[in-house]
Amino acid sequence: MTDHGTLVERGHEVVAVAQDEHGVDITTERRRWRARYLVACDGAHSTVRRLCDIPFPGHPATSRSTVVDLELTGATPAPGLHFSDYLHHAGDRSTLLHPLEGGRFRMVFGRTTADLDETGGGPVTHDEVSDALRATHGDRVHVRAVLAGSRFTDATRQVEQYRHGRILLAGDAAHIHSPHGGQGVNLGIQDAVNLGWKLATHLRGDAPAGLLDSYHAERHPAAAHVLQLTLAQRAIMNPVAPESSALRELMLDLARLPDVVARLSGLMSGLALRYRLPGPEHPLLGVRAPETTLATDAGPRRLAELLHPGRAIALLLADLPRPELPDSPHAPLIIQADPTPELPAGAVLVRPDGYIGWAGDDTTGLTEALATWITNRTPTRRSA
Fold it and tell me: What is the phi/psi pair of residue 45, to 5°?
């Protein structure tokens, strides 16, 4: 049981899934479960996706790689070098070896002629790690210990729909891609945060029309964009193709421009994501609420901390009357604060997932925004 009262059951292998208009039946080798909805977060080889015959189209793997954390001896690479200085290749082999904290190292290695079965694997062995390191570094560096290891391919796939009736998919069950750039975890977490508050609102029975369907509408394009980005990285990092080497040189040259660095960092971090949301056009509409400290009557408050309870926030950043709110414990918090340059608006509605669902010079339109994102209940009182 978690701190929030959620029951967590481990070690249950799902063997059958069936849904009807009222709910979903999930059968494991131990028991049968009945739920109103099922969210499949069961990884790249999702059992739920397979049992439900949900297609997983995309680009097949072109290479298989292994990532390991190591202890090394010998002429180990120094910290602080450019990323490209850690990349080595010899023939059809490539290694990316870079330092971690505590004297450890991480190495990603692979062969362009490797078996491309996306489901294969097996334990990572000391001998194969040593063999890969010797192929690209000679006898300058030696493996003292393999601390951890796993395998992956650069297959790129995405389900066409994130919702199938009462079954929803999130994380690697919905999309897989090359791990270059380390974007997979953040992508899955964003799926979960986006879906979590929408599904909770739907289960309470006061969700605005179409709220649950907006999960697919928002997250599918976001993941598709990341998949395109990792495909581009896959092309750039090909260790043997001469055009990839030329492309890397071009990108390294462009990366000296501050505007290019800002754009690339926004894409890689996900902070450049902007949802296409309904409502009057505004520079803040659909963007992630910036990290800022608000000057309130109760003292300085970080916006991120105000979102911890999982409720929406109506920010009043000008001398405006407090808006009418639905008579609901799940109505947004109203926060009066001084204007801040990070939020150039008089009033802002921040959704529970931290994205801005509406912004304006005054509170005109805020009621409609609440009816779009937060609750289908009609405002019945003016907040005190």
Answer: -105, 45
- pLDDT by residue for the chain (384 residues), tens only, comes to 677 778 888 888 999 999 999 999 999 998 999 999 999 999 999 999 999 999 999 999 887 889 999 999 999 999 998 877 888 888 878 898 999 998 899 999 987 665 555 555 688 999 999 999 999 999 999 999 999 998 888 899 999 999 999 999 999 999 999 887 778 888 999 999 999 999 999 999 989 999 999 999 999 999 999 999 988 888 887 766 788 888 888 988 898 999 999 998 888 888 889 999 998 999 999 999 999 999 998 999 999 999 998 999 999 998 888 887 777 778 889 999 999 999 999 999 999 999 999 999 998 899 899 999 998 887 665 443
Cβ atoms < 10 Å from Cβ of 185 = 11
CA gap 15, 26 in Å, rounded: 8
DSSP 315: E
> Regarding beta strands 167-169 and 38-40, do their DSSP bridges make them parallel or antiparallel, or are they unpaired?
parallel
Angle at 156 between CA 155 and CA 157, to 5 degrees: 115
C-alpha atoms less than 13 angstroms from C-alpha of 368 in its C-beta half-sphere = 9
Helices (H), 184-213: 184-204
Pairing relationship of beta strands 356-360 and 313-316 according to DSSP bridges: unpaired
The Cα–Cα gap between 78 and 98 comes to 8
Edge-to-edge strand ranges of the sheet holding 356-360: 333-336, 313-316, 347-350, 356-360
Number of CB atoms found within 10 A of residue 158's CB:
19
- Cβ atoms of 316 and 350 within 8 Å: the answer is no
HSE (side-chain half, CA atoms, 13 Å) at 16:
10
Tokens at residue 247, please?
């492309």
How far is it, in rounded angstroms, from Cα 301 to Cα 105? 39
Whether 373 and 357 have beta carbons less than 8 Å apart is answered as: yes
DSSP sequence for 130-159: HHHHHHHHTTSEEEEEEEEEEEEE--EEE-
Expressed in angstroms, the distance from the first to the final Cα of the chain is 37
Backbone angles phi, psi at 161, to 5 degrees: -135, 130
**Three-state SS at 341:** coil
Could you give phi then psi for residue 340, rounded to 5 degrees? -140, 140
